[in-house]
Write a structure and sequence with these properties.
This protein has 1216 residues and is of the alpha+beta class. It contains 36 helices and 50 strands. The radius of gyration is 37 Å and the shape is globular.
């Protein structure tokens, strides 16, 4: 009997399986109607995020770069108004420009409010007051213009008086960790290329703590306080738990007496951790009114720019926002004044030699213009002050060898006063061990804390009064290369400089990065690079990237200008090599690089037919080397231990320790290395690791990242929540063995999305969906801080279909499109919006032997086409669907039909122009290009991915994202505290502060790909960059990490390579692996006791219908059926039912009728119409629901209804 019943069920299953396996695309038109059936509420499958269409496509065009390409250089601009001649001084060629236009006779002041030209201004400006000054607030985007009358044609320099707004008057913080950027125009046109983009620096200051000295007793405290106040400190006595302390505020200006007191008492102004390590202070923006004289942001030109204004009643000056808001008081057109020489300036000094000695420690700057310039430890020399091997002492500025203080425009300032008036030298103990064969340059500005009139009124003359660069030589200070520390008087390499300082006057000295005398040389190398890069692209268009060295290309005939240009630039580079050696006095690696490039250019230019083709690969490599050379030359590293203000008759202090000092220092360093605890550097409390209240947090990042997070914990999290945190910096790969040993942390930062699920299904992570506030933080559409794609990959359903989440997103990375705007403009191509645009650009690019960099990832096409990688809740792969195959075939066609390169170095090819369009991870690629491709700055852009156009014309340009997360580890004792930390760390405030701090420490190449929606707004992107990133960020898909998903990439990779290398049919090749993939998925699900399909090839809808029929059979609903064969086709003939007497006949008849309809729902090919099939299931559910409402659930009908609902959901999910 049991055998007979089983045979009946299997017979019906076979028939239904045949019917249910029909084509599903026919039901698309009816899908919406079915979804609205009143008897079923369909919840979308958890393994997909349906992207929004049409609101994430960029509206940017290529036109904005044409303004750059059409602009003249400053030299070309000056040549229009000057006579130009070349002179040679000491073997160095210089171009001399003599103006034919007279300087302006008097200053012209443009009032930012009164002279505003509203008709030409579209920015959301407003009038506000800052530090008592009424000014025009201008946001980070939009244009503001002013009208000015020019009485006669003349030349002027331009000064902008501005205030870097940190908070608006209502207290809203509006600034980020980046400089103010504006595009400058006169009468709607860029005057010249170097003046197009203005970078207006902000002012930052270190948040020094009050220095404290522990007193022996009350009398000692009083004596220490009295002595400190006598030398100018402001202090007080404090009683603390461990004794009496004398506390002094950080001095605004240093004197020799204050410095002596600090050395005598050990007074320091940095926070110390529990091991006495000094912690780098937080750097805060210090909003002040400043003046910015428009000058070369690259540092090529030492003096400010001069602009020629034609006589006009209505000249319009405009500033267009790029980044950061600012308030503007005025714009002044001032007659340009050239710097006087040192000889001219010093001739007016009084003859008295200064007798004071003020040592300004490098680690104590008064202000900086960049957050990346901060105090650091250096233990290379025993003479660096102060020095300690047992713990960290911050004792210099600029980083080891000057790596942190090297970009044009970065400056540091110090304030001091001398006790005795006189002429002083400024001596620097410095290290410049990076630029081999070159020197670093700095400019020196000196400022007096008086106005000119006030100073003269007090002292009777202007001796000792300064308000800027004191002499021409001070604009190009020189710091030579050496592997050792050096002490030298500030000098331009020829003349040692001295300055007269008046006793009691507070002076501020600003030391800023510039290229100095090297600027013209570097500018010429950059011009040569642009020329030979253009030559390379011209050759590439003729020969391709891999030319035949035996072919006669006829270079002389086809491109004579290119051949001549190669020769000219070879000669130019040889001249620059000689000039560089003459300037630096040695021949180092920097000169050798130029010589190597010059040699190859000479060979190719002099014998093009034999040398160009065979040396093209080396030519390309040399272009990269030259770009790196420029990047290195533009970075001007310098590390300062101290600046010493001393009389001109004093000897220089020693720069290096003697043998015995060095030996003792090295021995101490060696032994202390065994005792220093690097794991808890920055920890402010010595926690007992057995205390259950402490949340132990691990992370495997760098030390900089660890220090920033530790500072945020100490300053924000623990004080606000009272939860103690023990942060540990660990090596990567530490987590797994620690979990196995049951000695892991409570919380781990930086776990990849695949690891989250792998650990979770093995019970190593704690589910967090039940924690307080989880829904509001992660799921509620109005309050959530993460997008759907970020949360999807951190959760997985259990056997009861309940979703559990195991982490909070920290970072979210995704691909964006990078384009060389200059090249696309030359080829008359616009920014692609769709893949059709990409396909249309391919023949134009390939005709010029250029390529597109495409990652081999079919998933982006799959999700843009509306497909999913998994089906049936992760029980099987969905790549055998029509959409899956179409997506895979399209990706393969890019390589097989359009010859896209499979392996390539995108950054290098993008840099040279071989690959003007590419798709890559947005932060990683952006950061890389910012550092290593400075020569194409402004010529490239980052935009959302191209999209797929559907039948209705909608563009779906979603990108597939990847997430790293913060997770709670099984075994955590303080779950509430750990959850609070997780919320805080992934929250907007922490993420924004962390991101800005990392940019402050490492520079603009350290952009952090935060997953927090709100934090993204506060990151230091420019307005245009943020706009494009947000477009893509708001349209992301993600692929859930179901058990067995690791196998998919292996076999799809096999299929792709077979298509590329062997010409295999992509669809057939992929289909050949589907069974293998599904078997592995089933095996892994069985391992973790998750539901699986009954056999390979089965669908969830089929399984649920079989389960429903089995339940009905067990509920005394017997089924008789027969199968006939007609022309080899299987059809249903009759279905008869013997219904239990408890089931009312009216429902029995209706149900029998509906099931019978399955046999009539076949199309002409005898396949079930999916829409009719779903309609019948809907009616079945409605009928059986009606029965249970009236007759009760005597035969388990509710469970049958549930299974049929599942089957219906599955059928709907199959719609394509």
């Amino acid at each position: 009997m049991n055998k007979k019943r089983t045979q009946r069920i299997l017979s019906l299953v076979l028939a239904l399986t045949f019917l249910l396996s029909g084509t599903t695309v026919l039901a698309a038109a009816e899908e919406n109607t079915l979804l609205m059936a009143p008897t079923l509420t369909v919840t979308p499958e958890a393994d997909t995020v349906k992207p929004v269409v049409n609101n994430s496509v960029t509206d940017a065009t290529i036109d904005d770069v044409r303004e750059i390409l059409d602009s003249n250089s400053y030299d070309e601009y000056r040549a229009k108004y000057c006579t130009v001649e070349t002179v040679v001084v000491d073997g160095v060629k210089n171009t001399v420009y003599t103006w034919k236009v007279a300087p302006g006779k008097e200053e012209i002041v443009i009032d930012a409010i009164a002279d505003l030209y509203a008709q030409e201004s579209d920015a959301a400006y407003k009038i506000e007051t800052y530090d008592g000054v009424e000014a025009l607030y201008t946001p980070s985007s939009g244009t503001v213009s002013w009208k000015v009358s020019i009485p006669e044609t003349a030349r002027y320099s331009i000064v902008i008086e501005y205030y870097a707004v940190h908070k608006t008057n209502d207290g809203t913080v509006v600034s980020k960790a980046t400089d103010i950027g504006r595009i400058f125009r006169i009468n709607s046109a860029i005057p010249f290329l170097e003046a197009r983009y203005l970078t207006l620096p902000k002012t930052y200051s270190n948040d020094y703590i009050d220095g404290a000295i522990k007193a022996k007793d009350a009398a000692d405290a009083s004596a220490l306080l009295a002595k400190g106040e006598a030398v100018g400190f402001v202090g007080k006595i404090e009683e603390r738990e461990n004794g009496t302390y004398v506390v002094f505020a950080f001095p605004e200006a240093w004197t020799s007496d204050k410095i002596a007191y600090c050395e005598e008492t050990g007074l320091r102004f940095f926070t110390q951790d529990i091991d006495n390590n000094e912690i780098r202070p937080t750097i805060s923006q210090d909003p002040v009114w400043k003046e910015y004289e428009i000058r070369d942001g690259n540092g090529y030109h030492a003096e400010s720019f001069e602009f020629v204004f034609e006589e006009s009643e209505e000249t319009v000056i405009s500033l267009t926002g790029v980044s950061e808001p600012m308030a503007i008081k005025s714009i002044r057109l001032i007659p340009h004044e050239n710097y006087q020489s040192f000889e001219q300036v010093s001739s007016g000094y009084p003859t008295k030699v200064g007798t004071d000695k003020v040592q300004l420690e490098g680690e104590y700057p008064y202000t900086t213009s960049s957050q990346t310039v901060y105090p650091m430890e250096d233990t290379r020399s025993a003479l660096t002050k102060p020095i300690e091997t047992a713990y960290t002492l911050l004792n210099s500025i600029g980083g080891v060898g000057g790596e942190k203080w090297n970009s044009a425009g970065q400056s540091v300032s110090y304030k001091f006063s001398v006790k005795e008036s006189g002429v002083y030298n400024i001596v620097a103990r410095f290290s410049q061990s990076t630029l081999d064969g070159m020197y670093s340059s700095r400019s020196l500005g000196i400022y007096t804390d008086y106005t000119k009139d006030a100073y003269k009124a007090k002292f009777g003359d202007l001796d000792g009064y300064y308000n800027g660069v004191p002499c021409e030589e001070a604009s190009r200070l020189r710091f030579d290369y050496s592997t050792k520390w050096q002490t030298k008087i500030l000098s331009d390499g020829v003349t040692d400089l001295s300055f007269y300082f008046e006793a009691g006057v507070e002076y501020r000295i600003d030391i800023g990065v510039t290229l100095g005398s090297m600027g013209l040389l570097v500018a010429q190398v950059e011009e040569a690079l642009e020329a030979i890069n253009s030559d390379y692209l011209s050759i590439l268009m003729l020969t391709g990237a891999d030319p035949d060295k035996y072919r006669d290309y006829g270079f002389k005939r086809v491109m004579p200008d290119v051949v001549e240009d190669l020769r000219k630039n070879s000669e130019l580079l040889y001249d620059l090599v000689a000039e560089l050696e003459n300037m630096s006095g040695i021949k180092g690696s920097m000169a050798a690089t130029l010589e190597t490039v010059a040699w190859l250019l000479g060979r190719m230019g002099n014998d093009p037919e034999n040398e160009i083709a065979k040396n093209l690969a080396q030519f390309k490599s040399n272009i990269g080397s030259l770009g790196t050379w420029i990047s290195s030359a533009k970075t001007q590293p310098l590390q300062i231990d101290y600046l010493l203000i001393q009389g001109t008759d004093q000897p220089l202090p020693k720069a290096e320790a003697n043998f015995f000092q060095s030996l003792g220092h090295e021995i101490r360093s060696f032994f202390q290395s065994f005792f220093r605890n690097y794991d808890r550097m920055g920890a402010m409390e010595d926690y007992d690791e057995d205390d259950d209240e402490i949340v132990e947090v691990w992370l495997a990042y760098g030390r900089d990242q660890s220090q920033v997070i530790r500072n945020l914990i100490n300053n924000d999290f623990t004080p606000d929540t009272g939860v103690p945190v023990n942060l540990k910096l660990v090596a990567g790969g530490t987590l797994l063995p620690s979990i196995l040993a049951r000695s892991g942390p409570d919380v781990y930062i930086g776990l990849g999305q695949a690891d989250i699920i792998n650990y979770a299904i093995r019970g190593a992570l704690i589910a967090i969906e039940g924690c307080e506030g989880f829904d509001e933080l992660c799921l509620n559409e109005e309050t959530r801080q993460f997008n759907e794609a970020a949360m999807l990959v951190l959760g997985i359903e259990d056997a009861t279909k309940t979703m559990h989440y195991y982490g909070l997103p920290e970072t979210q990375t995704f691909n964006m499109m990078f384009i060389r705007k200059d090249i696309l403009a030359d080829l008359d191509l616009d920014i692609p919006k769709t893949w059709d645009d990409i396909l249309a650009a391919i023949p134009i690019l390939q005709a010029n032997n250029m390529q597109i960099g495409m990652h081999s990832d079919y998933q982006i096409f799959l999700y843009q086409m509306g497909g999913e990688l998994f089906a049936d809740g992760g029980m099987r792969i969905n790549l055998d669907s029509n959409t899956g195959l179409e997506a895979f075939e399209f990706m393969c066609s890019l390589y097989t039909n359009y010859s896209f390169p499979y392996a390539y170095d995108f950054a290098n090819r993008f840099r040279t122009g071989e690959m003007p369009i590419g798709f890559a991870a947005y932060t990683g690629t952006y950061n890389n290009l910012k550092v290593f491709a400075t020569e194409i700055e402004g010529l490239w852009g980052m935009y959302p991915m191209p999209g797929t156009v559907d039948a209705n014309g909608n563009i779906n340009n979603c990108a597939v994202s990847a997430v790293t997360a913060i997770a709670m580890i099984t075994g955590c004792e303080n779950i509430d505290g750990a959850w609070e930390f997780m919320k805080w760390h992934s929250g907007a405030s922490c993420q924004e502060q962390y991101s800005n701090e990392m940019v402050a420490i490492l520079g603009p190449s350290a952009k952090h790909p935060t997953a927090n929606i709100e934090a993204l707004e506060g990151l230091p992107w420019s307005a245009d960059e943020l706009k494009e990133i947000k477009l893509q960020f708001n349209n992301l898909a993600s692929v859930p990490n179901y058990p067995g998903s690791y196998i998919i990439g292996r076999y799809t990779g096999f299929a792709l390579l077979a298509a590329i290398n062997s010409g295999a049919n992509p669809a057939e090749e992929l289909l050949s692996y589907i069974i293998t993939i599904n078997k592995e998925i089933t095996r892994k699900r069985q391992e973790f006791e998750l539901e699986t399909l009954d056999y390979v090839g089965q669908k969830l809808s089929e399984k649920r219908i079989l389960q429903a029929l089995t339940l009905l059979e067990d509920g005394k609903l017997s089924i008789e059926m027969g199968v006939l064969r007609e022309d080899g086709e299987v059809v249903l003939d009759t279905i008869q039912y013997a219904i239990s007497s408890n089931l009312k006949k009216q429902y029995a008849d209706e149900f029998a009728h509906m099931i019978t309809e399955l046999s009539r729902a076949a199309d002409t090919e005898n396949r079930i119409d999916n829409a009719k099939q779903m309609a019948i299931l809907n009616e079945c559910i409605a009928t059986m629901s009606g029965f249970t409402a009236q007759a009760g659930d005597e035969i388990g009908v509710n469970e049958v209804i549930s299974l049929m609902n599942d089957a219906l959901e599955a059928l709907i999910s199959y719609q394509e």
